[in-house]
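CORE FACILITY INTAKE
Project code: CF-77B
Contact: R.S. (postdoc)
Sample description: multi-component assembly, two entities in total
Requested service: structural model of the whole complex
Turnaround: standard
Below are the sequence entries exactly as provided by the requester. Do not edit them.
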Amino acid sequence: MIPQTFEYTAPKTLDEAMALLASGGKPLAGGMSLIPMMKLRLATPEHLVDLGRIKDLDYIREAAGELHIGATTTHYSVESSALVRGKCPLLSAAAGAIGDPQIRNVGTMGGSVAHADPAADYPAALQALEAKIVIRGAKGERTVSAADFFVDAFTTSLESGEVVREVVVPVEQAGTGTSYLKMPQPASGFAIVGVAVRVQRSGGKITLARIGVTGLSNIGYRAWAAEKALEGSAGSADDITKAAALVAQGIDANSDLHASADYRRHLASVYAARAITAAASKA
Amino acid sequence: MATTIIQTEKLVGKRIRRREDPRLITGTATYVDDMQMPGMHHAAIVRSPHAAAKIRSISIKAAAEAPGVVAVFTGKDTEKVGPVPCGASLPGLRVPHHYILAIDRVYLVGHPVAVVVATDRYLARDAADLVEVDWEVLPAVADPEKAIAPGAPPVHPQWPDNVAFVYNQEGGDVDKAFAEAEVIVKQRITSQRLIPSAMETRGVLAEWRGADRQMTLYTSTQVPHLVRTLVAGMLGLEENRMRVVAPEVGGGFGSKLNIYPEEALMGFVSMKIGKPVKWIESRRENFLCTIHGRGHVDYFEVAAKKDGTILGIKLKLIQDQGAYHQLLGPAIPTLSVLMMPGLYRTKNIRAEVIGVFTNCTPTDAYRGAGRPEATHGIERMVDILADELGIDPAEIRLKNFVHNEEFPFPTATGLTYDSGDYAAPLQKAMGIVDYTKLRAEQAAARKQGKLMGIGICTYGEICGFGPSPATPAGGWECGTVRVEPSGKVTLLTGSCHHGQGEETTFAQLAADELGVDIDDILVLRGDTAIVPYGIGTFGSRATAIGGTALYYAMQDLKVKMKKFGAIMLDSHDVSYANGQVVCNKMGKSVSFKEIAAASYRAMKLPPNTEPGLVSTHFWEPPNFTFGFGAHIAVTEIDPETGQITVRRYLAVDDCGNIINPLIVDGQVHGGVAQGMGQALWEQAVYDDNGQLVTGEYTDYTMPRAHMMPWIESQHTTTPSPVNPLGVKGVGEAGTIGASPSLVNSVVDALSHLGVRHIDMPLTPEKIWKLVAGGKN
């Protein structure tokens, strides 16, 4: 369990980090996935640039109806922040569902998002929240939607030399209810299936439904068909069951030792129904 | 000299906190990996990535030239080092020659082929990647039933049928029992491969002092003396020139009751380079290269009368041995045969065991070692029989238990159950959970479409291994009590605790027996230069045998102390009480300390008495001890997802007299967690090419604290007549009781859907399919 030789630098500023990354460094932001892969020599970076010492990447701020979460903010900070709990409870629920306390104390939001594990918890929540990812590169910053950010398993729209600087989520509006429910893979704690739901209700009807699903396929995705079925409905148990049945529609489901594709699809609708019900009850 | 007699408080039976825990929980204990030596080198082992392959050639040039590397050895260099020993003997047993490094062929993933020695652990590991092996990959077989099917690739070419041994055992008249049966139930039951997962992986540090011609081997083992005898033999070194030390050992669960290639390999390397050399097993290596447990496919048949009386049991047991026999591998399934009647009276049994070679990690003793498999089988079969006959599972057990007046009870498999009251823990457990009310609740839940199960396991276990004739090495234990001149007491035990708490329990025993302060007692173990000899800790034997050896050593010591006391008090009529020798007539006494000082000062010796106060006793037990108990698991199942919730878990164990209830609770909790791990989560899965799919903790589901329910631990007490302490053993009880009670509970929850059996682990997907499909 000894990695190959590598160089390690811990810059104090993002500008310094960007220069090191431009010359081929690999960013380290918590290392909860990268370090185990290095120990097994499945990943062999020559130069690690630790973003963990950059003070102005670790923050949670509110501005103009949005929460801005710096890339090196730990899962524990996201989970326990009074601001996130109060203004974006779906995100704090997803953060609290990650791994175990040790992982949540070290792993970071930017690291997790950039790693894009298809069974990670954040992608479901960020899709349901229609979050934005602020990316810093050599030429400056750009912002992409969560929908555009996650491209494939372990693949994002980050270009070489770019890093996630922050994640931006909307402050929850009145009349909104959210829920994140998952069945963890028992050994790793990653999601066999995780479903994040955000609904708004008005005049007895569901006026907005956003459903993010993780663990089921190669990418955390928006369940468009299910959202459409739910919007405009009264949100009855029957409406929810029908909508939940659509969350895996058209999805090529994963299959592994822990859950077959059929079981995953089934779980996706069960967890979707439960998460929608829970979210709708709060809306 | 004092005249007052202090009535010291008895410590046996008290919940005393473990004296070893502060150093363990503050991370200050010394394990092999903590040890440093001047000039110490580090070894990294090159292992096969293939389950079966020929080695065309090995190129070590690049590795040998790498920075910091001082030597690289391959199988050609170590060919003359003795084979890794198999201590089990069975008629017709096929024992492949187990070289410490592969010669020209590998038989499993992880098979060691070369060792790289460097000045630094990191450099050794880097250089290991530079060893180039030219492989000719061969077909492999990883499933024992596939391995004995015609046309399977041979694991060892000299034995194309892959059969390692066939072992038959029979008692009573099985054919008659089955001919007279009113009902026969049959079931295939598996007990899947498990990875023992001690918290500390293995590690070896060898220090050869050529000038003294002495080797010290520090190794994380449960059996230091056996390692000394056997590894010295492998290296061609005289046994008295080898010292083996087991420093702090971070758990074993049987996986360190073994002799491993790396122990001899480090000795070999140290002799070659003339420097100390250390190897620490990585977790990945631990998964692949330390023994696995279980690995059974059992075909059970039970013959019975309509009233539930069991008439006979047949078992065909297919044991996955893996690619090699480790120390006790072939003996483990024979322990399953011994325990296959469970607690039941039937005298008619027939077992056929087929040991099978596969291209997998060898299987050997893992917590329970054969008894969990046997208990799982018979306890599942009893439930299946009860279901078939419409009899309550508790009732059918009570009907078939050995009666109290039948002890000592000779079993059909040749054992003699020492003592017991088998109905007592079951009745106690049923009372605690209010069994009748639970059944009513279950019936009501079913009407509402809810799935709730109540599972019972009543188990027996062989503890206190064991009488020497019944064990591959000696079955005794050695204990020494040494009173130092200052009056401090040092206990040396041949047991080798590695988490069990004997530093506390043995000190409790001695404090009571000698009447001294527990803080004056030091318990030492695990060093062949300190302890006269020992067998080690495994098979729930340390207290029953190691404790008893110390008990008898203390009796001898007290006799000697009385002799010293008598001359010091100038009296012939003295007695030993509460750490003093007292003159019965005058009431005067001499203290423990005073006697200790006088015995070493030796100004005046009692007749025919040597100076000093040291007493050693080797205790040979006349029989095993047989613990027993009843576990009840109440489960609820989410019918939509198949997820199981353990609502209640109660263990009522009878381990004889209890020295420290806190430690017994700990053993039960840990044991139940391991049994629950097998029942619900753990499985070592190989693909058809012999690759271990569950090769990391990301895929191998170890139970975690947050996954465990509250475990209630209760007891009944039936002292063992086998030893003067009346103790039996409890190290494995929880593991043995847990898997059947949990599986019985889940099958019970689904029985109205026609489900009769589910193989472990009970993954949610399996349960969901059964609920959705409603069939077995």
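Facility notes:
- The interface with chain B takes residues 1-2, 4-5, 36, 40-41, 100, 183, 186-188, 257-260, 263, 266-267, 270 of chain A (CB under 8 Å).
- The longest strand of chain A covers residues 191-202.
Invoice: internal transfer
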